[in-house]
Amino acid sequence: MKTIKNILAAIGLISISGLFIFAVQKGPSDQNIENEPKLVNDYNVYALSVPKALDFAGEPVPLENPDILERMDRELLVNTYWQSNGLLMFKRAEKYFPIIEPILKKNNVPDDFKYLAVIESGLTNAVSPAGARGVWQIMKTTGRENGLEINSNVDERYHLEMATEVACKYLLKAKQKLGSWTLAAAAYNAGNAGVSRRLEEQGVSDYYDLLLGEETGRYLFRIIALKEILNHPKQYGFNFKKEDLYKTVPTYKVEVDTIVTDFSQFAKRFGINYKILKLHNPWLREGKLNNSSNKKYYIEIPKEGYYSVKP
Fold it and tell me: I need a surface site. Which of 45, 88, 205, 221 has the fewest CB within 10 A?
């Protein structure tokens, strides 16, 4: 029995030694990682090089600060390797940026704020748990204070042009109050009062010097990461053709200043159906328009030839 135990122990020792030798021979190093053949479907995960200089609205990111560098690296990694979401951002940006950009320019708001809309909603008509809605994630109180109609019948937070105008008003006020576009962007997430209070409590004047909660602390870095990736797709591994991106369907406006009792019938007058009408006018929240005050509304109707509608 003792002899058998000794034999088994010897076999075990030889096996472990062999595994150890194999591990030492095949262990990863900077050299053999570069020399190893590519894996299945050329899918590999690589560390990213954070650009030497980044900015938001012309205000530089202090990447010489190791904390700032690590936080920037995190957002570049997260958004680069969330590939499906990244491709959707490229596709949607092609469709919606041409609508947002001229409104920002008209209001003297830096073009970089279009990337704020990307991280707020993914360029969709999202609804937050707190009740913010639309591409710009506007709260009901903020919307009404800035002239938007919001009720069960009409919710203009879903009207992209109108909501972009409201976002511009908010950002301009925040910039005037807080002194920088970077802090104005942070205030879009945490509120003017919230950011002002934190600056005063901590005795600093710059976003990058603030100790903030998780969401607002990541906010600017996420915006800058999306700006960097969307401007340099190949550098971050995104491959697509122009025809892969979503296209804006041309429309014309129809003025309505009366009650509409049935939008399904209204849509048929223009050769479309209710679903298509709603796609282009998500601010219409019901199948009718009450309009007891005879207010003028402008309804977007797609031009002919873009949709196939069965009678």
Answer: 45
